[in-house]
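Renewal narrative, Specific Aim 1. Our central claim is that a sequence can be written position by position from structural information alone. The example that follows is taken directly from our test logs and has not been curated for this report. It begins with the structure tokens describing the chain, in the order in which they were read.
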């Protein structure tokens, strides 16, 4: 089948946009092709989706030349309105026939309505693709978008060219005055002249001949291989920095530079973070692990020696500034920096960073006490919270903002702070840097991360500043992500986050700040609920919904429980009989609640009178449910996936037998109460695994 090729050329996209934008374009075009009936059966494995800072390329090698013809059954007016009393067709029927382009002789009468079979001829793909590609491009969304010129289109960066071909022919359409053609562009500086390409193969070959590597995986190999060959030592190769360089370049080349050895007297975090975070360079260690005065830089254009000199000059200037601020910082201690945070505003309505510190200390003590931490660990948590934001007042952080946390940890270590406090300060902005071991030090680090996010969420959500749509200017979704991941990292049970948020809101209240506590809690649950899809991408959608227990909104603030239920449901959701069985008592109890029928909501098994059940099958189910109640909820608390799954499976036969042999909604109130209460008790055991009504 013919190939569809699309390249959208634009000004340089931010590195973080490229991968998501290309994937979004590929998905959007594929969906629109499928919707139009043009996507071939073999499409998928051979599709191309490449991206660089200046272009997004997608290719579909299996697109149909035209839509298939189809026959649709069209319903006309009701029989009463289609024919008059004399049996003759009415104007309504005649108008229907004209509108459908059919002869009156071809209508059918099913006794209620008149029908006609309408043949719809498929359209050629060439007539449809222009609209499809226009819609796909205009439908792209970005974290930040802009308008340019007099256009109305919002896009990440201005579009400069569009290459669109189908079966070797241009697809005519335009977006914001840029007409589609068959020309692409090479490297901006090495080969900027246009060239023609009609297929993905020709385009990729033409780009490579013109110093553009379109495939991100190939660029990644070029970068990693180039770093290894260029470095005189052992380069520090962080995956995130490699990925950023992949999408900053079209023709990556690795070069090595140096800086004066005297600058190695600066703290190592300053050197590494300044190189990696601020200048996107790869630091180099010696074979014995010591940081050297060398770095590797990935260039996209220019001549090696010129780029090397420029990179060295920029880095030397950065390090000399850092050396000045480091020298100034040595005149003060952590207590001094803490006092200076009184001059830094946290948020207009929420006070200064110093005031926030007092809240963090109180909340750290509460969070430590909740699961029963020792007095020593509580003291570590409170000390870490006290000095967590002190480095915001340092000269180094004011100059290099990405040093937050790292500089606090460096200065705390120099003053002899406990290792647990130093670790907490160093890792407070990045959970992945906390070691996996369960120690007082790692627990202190996790506690600091937790209280930091809770205080921010309580303050911002309580002030009505919750995220809306794609807008999250204060990074509150990331706060929820950190809390969820911290809970998953925690060894053992944590108090529910909604209880912790209540504590944080109470601390704000004690400080004289009025917040909307109810609004904060509702928004808190909403933010949590939305995060699991991206954090558990491999979990089936309906299983994830069932695990979140939508009718019990605060369950989403227990991340350990949500993930546990996805694991249990993954074992049970394939058993159609079990899912159907579990759904029945849940639906019956929900229907009774909606009708206002009475049953015991709290502690239901203690309120079921066996005689009132008036059912041997009910007695058998009651006995089993009571016998395994403690085991079910213990398995849920202890996150015993296999144990809970086995107990849930054991309910299937007695529940089915009871429901098949017993009427629940009887007239006798006492009997109905007992039977509904028993079903509620059974429902609670099923809900320990998840809401089976959400399973498809």
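The sequence written for that structure reads:
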């Amino acid at each position: 089948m013919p190939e569809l090729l699309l390249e959208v050329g634009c000004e340089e996209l931010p590195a973080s946009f490229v991968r998501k934008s290309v994937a979004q374009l590929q998905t959007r075009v594929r969906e629109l092709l499928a919707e139009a009936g043009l996507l071939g059966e073999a499409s998928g494995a051979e599709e191309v989706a490449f991206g660089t800072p200046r272009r997004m390329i997608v290719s579909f090698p299996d697109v149909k030349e035209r839509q298939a013809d189809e026959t649709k059954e069209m319903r006309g007016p009701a029989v009463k309105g289609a024919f008059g009393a004399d049996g003759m067709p009415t104007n309504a029927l005649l108008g229907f026939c004209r509108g459908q382009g059919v002869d009156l002789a071809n209508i059918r009468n099913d006794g209620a309505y008149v029908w006609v079979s309408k043949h719809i001829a498929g359209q050629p793909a060439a007539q449809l693709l222009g609209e499809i590609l226009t819609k796909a491009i205009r439908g792209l969304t970005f974290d930040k978008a802009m308008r340019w010129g007099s256009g109305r289109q919002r896009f990440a960066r201005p579009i400069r060219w569009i290459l669109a071909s189908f079966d070797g022919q241009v697809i005519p359409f335009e977006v914001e005055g840029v007409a589609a053609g068959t020309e692409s562009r090479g490297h901006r500086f090495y080969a900027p002249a246009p060239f023609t390409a009609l297929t993905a193969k020709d385009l990729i070959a033409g780009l490579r001949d013109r110093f553009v590597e379109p495939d991100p995986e190939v660029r990644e190999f070029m970068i990693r291989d180039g770093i290894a060959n260029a470095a005189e030592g052992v380069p520090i190769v962080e995956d995130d920095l490699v990925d950023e360089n992949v999408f900053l370049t079209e023709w990556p080349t690795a070069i090595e530079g140096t800086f004066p050895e005297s600058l190695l007297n600066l703290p190592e975090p300053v050197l590494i973070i300044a190189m990696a975070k601020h200048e996107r360079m790869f630091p180099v260690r010696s074979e014995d692990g010591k940081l050297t005065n060398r770095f590797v830089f990935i260039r996209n254009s220019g001549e090696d020696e010129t780029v090397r000199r420029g990179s060295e000059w920029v880095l030397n200037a950065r390090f000399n500034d850092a050396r000045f601020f480091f020298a100034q910082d040595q005149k003060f201690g952590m207590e001094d920096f803490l006092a200076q945070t009184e001059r830094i505003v946290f948020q207009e309505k929420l006070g200064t960073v110093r005031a926030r510190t007092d809240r963090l200390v109180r909340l750290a003590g509460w969070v430590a006490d909740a699961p029963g931490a020792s007095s020593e660990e509580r003291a570590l948590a409170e000390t870490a919270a006290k000095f967590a934001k002190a480095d915001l007042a340092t000269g180094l952080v004011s100059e290099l903002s990405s040093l937050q946390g790292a500089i606090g940890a460096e200065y705390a270590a120099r003053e002899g702070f406990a290792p647990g406090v130093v670790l907490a300060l160093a890792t407070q902005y990045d959970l992945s840097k906390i070691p996996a071991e369960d120690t007082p030090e790692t627990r202190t680090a996790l506690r600091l991360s937790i209280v930091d996010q809770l205080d921010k969420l309580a303050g911002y959500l309580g002030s009505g500043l919750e995220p809306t749509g794609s807008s999250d200017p204060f990074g509150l979704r990331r706060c929820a992500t950190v809390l969820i991941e911290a809970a998953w990292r925690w060894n053992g049970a944590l108090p529910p986050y909604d209880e912790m948020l209540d504590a944080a809101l109470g601390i704000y209240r004690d400080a004289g700040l009025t917040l909307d506590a109810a609004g904060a809690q509702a928004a808190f649950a909403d933010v949590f609920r939305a995060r699991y899809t991206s954090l558990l991408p491999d979990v089936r959608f309906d299983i994830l919904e069932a695990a979140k227990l939508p009718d019990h909104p605060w369950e989403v603030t227990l991340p350990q429980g949500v993930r546990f239920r996805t694991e249990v449901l993954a074992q049970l959701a394939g058993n159609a009989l079990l899912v159907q069985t579990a759904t029945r008592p849940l639906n019956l109890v929900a229907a009774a609640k909606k009708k206002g029928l009475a049953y015991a909501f709290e502690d239901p098994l203690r309120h079921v009178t066996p005689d009132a059940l008036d059912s041997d099958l009910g007695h058998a189910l009651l006995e089993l449910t009571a016998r395994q109640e403690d085991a079910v909820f213990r398995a849920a608390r202890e996150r015993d996936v296999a144990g809970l799954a086995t107990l849930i499976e054991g309910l299937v036969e007695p529940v089915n037998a009871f429901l098949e042999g017993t009427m629940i909604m009887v007239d006798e109130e006492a009997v109905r109460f007992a039977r509904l209460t028993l079903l509620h008790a059974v429902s609670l055991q099923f809900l320990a695994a998840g809401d089976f009504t959400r399973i498809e």
